[in-house]
């Protein structure tokens, strides 16, 4: 792939991330659900979207990281606890 193509793909990914993060607070305020449930579904959705992308783009690195799945699950759980406890304030 050319450098220009990689730059365009990077800009697209950053733009998508900015839209998702920017709209997150507005959407969460409208949802009448438990903060921990919202954090769970956010993490689940991110996993379902990013896992295939990571597998396709960086297969060898993905396999190396997938071996340490327990650490990844612990990190996700701690992330959900942080968002949920912050939302309870």
What is the compact description of this entry?
The chain has 89 residues and is mainly α. It has four helices and no strands.
Number of helices: 4
Q: Compute the separation of the termini in Å.
A: 47 Å
- Structural class designation: mainly alpha
Globally, the shape reads flat
Q: How big is the Rg?
A: 16 Å
The main β sheet shows up as: none
Number of strands: 0
Reading the helices and strands in chain order gives: HHHH
The domain tally reads: 2
Low-confidence stretches: none
Indicate the mean pLDDT.
80
Into which percentage range does the β-strand content fall?
Answer: under 5%
Helix residue percentage = over 70%
Explain what you see.
This protein is mostly helical. It has two domains: 1-30; 33-89. Helix content is 88%, strand content 0%. The chain has four helices and no strands. The N and C termini lie far apart (47 Å). The model has no long low-confidence stretch (mean pLDDT 80).
Keywords:
single chain; 89 residues; mainly alpha
Set out the fold topology.
Blueprint: H1 3-30, H2 35-57, H3 59-66, H4 69-87
Helix pairs in contact: 2-3, 2-4
């Amino acid at each position: 792939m050319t450098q220009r193509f990689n730059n365009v793909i990077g800009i697209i990914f950053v733009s998508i991330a900015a839209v998702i993060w920017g709209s997150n607070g507005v959407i969460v305020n409208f949802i009448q659900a438990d903060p921990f449930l919202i954090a769970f579904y956010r993490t689940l959705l991110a996993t379902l979207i990013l896992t295939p992308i990571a597998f396709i783009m960086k297969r060898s690195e993905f396999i190396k990281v997938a071996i340490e799945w327990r650490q990844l699950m612990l990190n996700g759980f701690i992330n959900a606890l942080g968002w949920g406890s912050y939302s309870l304030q």
